[in-house]
């Protein structure tokens, strides 16, 4: 798989916007030089379980299959104890993927494969430098107060906007590997938090259409919804579902699915 086969055009545009901010890449590499990435790896080794061929071999088999399909070098994979359904990727020089225990327990094998493919999509699209920058600025600026808000807010907001767009590319990678319908099931479980339910497979797509109609029904509604989302790290789940529903009719999607 190639990055250009799955990258969302808004993701590519947002990356160019970030690159236009003076000194952004040099800034994050400074953070990495200070060992911030190593700090995360130490936390993983200390408090999570690393997935290997010996530890959770069933999860590792799915992971190994997906990394081979996407065509990336295996990052480290961890499972951590958390009741929230979540997964994330971090690290530009030594990348890792972390899966919450709730996610592993609630997803079927194919759905778990889709989630891992999503995280591998971030790596394939070379998002990791910017994801690392985003998370580092957030923690050192907003949470630790080491960087004044006014100093880094333009870069942070640009990264926040890009991060939302990058998720659309990663979603495409997940859908390319397991199929759009299975990946829609992943998004529904993220929204509901339920392991099994009696929902329709396109319910989130229909909600996405209703959300778009609401958003564009008036200028005031559009302003409200845009303001609501400006500090979101991810797009709304119904928006992600609708984006995939539109992508599934493209040549790029069909050509990727024909490979698997």
Task: Write up this protein.
- With 260 residues, the protein is of the alpha+beta class.
- 67% of the residues lie in helices and 6% in strands.
- It has 14 helices and four strands.
- Strands 1-2-4-3 form a four-stranded mixed sheet, sandwiched between helices.
- α9 crosses α10 and α11 crosses α13.
- The longest helix has 30 residues.
- The mean pLDDT is 83.
Defining key terms:
four-stranded mixed sheet; 14 helices; 4 strands; globular
Briefly summarize what is shown.
The protein is α+β, with helices and mostly antiparallel strands. 67% of the residues lie in helices and 6% in strands.
Main pleated sheet:
4 strands, mixed
Strand tally: 4
Strands of the widest sheet, in order across it, are: 1-2-4-3
- Helical stretch count? 14
Stretches where pLDDT falls below 50 for ≥5 residues? none
């Amino acid at each position: 798989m190639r990055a250009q086969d799955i990258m969302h055009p808004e993701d590519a545009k947002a990356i160019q916007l970030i690159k236009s901010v003076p000194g952004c890449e040099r800034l994050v590499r400074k953070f990495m030089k200070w060992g911030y990435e190593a700090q995360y790896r130490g936390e993983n080794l200390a408090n999570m379980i690393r997935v290997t061929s010996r530890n959770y071999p069933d999860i590792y088999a799915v992971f190994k299959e997906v990394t081979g399909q996407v065509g990336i070098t295996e990052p480290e994979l961890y499972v951590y104890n958390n009741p929230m359904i979540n997964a994330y990727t971090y690290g530009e020089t030594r990348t890792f993927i972390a899966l919450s225990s709730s996610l592993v327990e609630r997803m079927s094998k194919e759905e778990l494969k889709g989630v891992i493919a999503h995280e591998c999509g971030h790596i394939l699209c070379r998002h990791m430098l910017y994801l690392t920058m985003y998370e580092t600025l957030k923690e050192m600026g907003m949470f630790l107060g080491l960087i004044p808000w006014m100093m880094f807010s333009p870069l942070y907001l640009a990264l926040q906007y890009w991060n939302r767009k990058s998720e659309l590319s990663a979603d495409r990678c997940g859908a390319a590997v397991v199929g759009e319908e299975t990946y829609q099931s992943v998004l529904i479980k993220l929204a509901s938090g339920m392991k099994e339910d009696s929902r329709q497979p396109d319910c989130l797509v229909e909600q996405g259409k209703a959300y778009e109609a609401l958003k564009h029904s008036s200028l005031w509604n559009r302003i409200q919804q845009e303001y609501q989302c400006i500090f979101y790290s991810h797009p709304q789940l119904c928006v992600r579902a609708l984006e995939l529903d539109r992508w599934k009719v493209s040549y790029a999607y069909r050509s990727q699915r024909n490979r698997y």
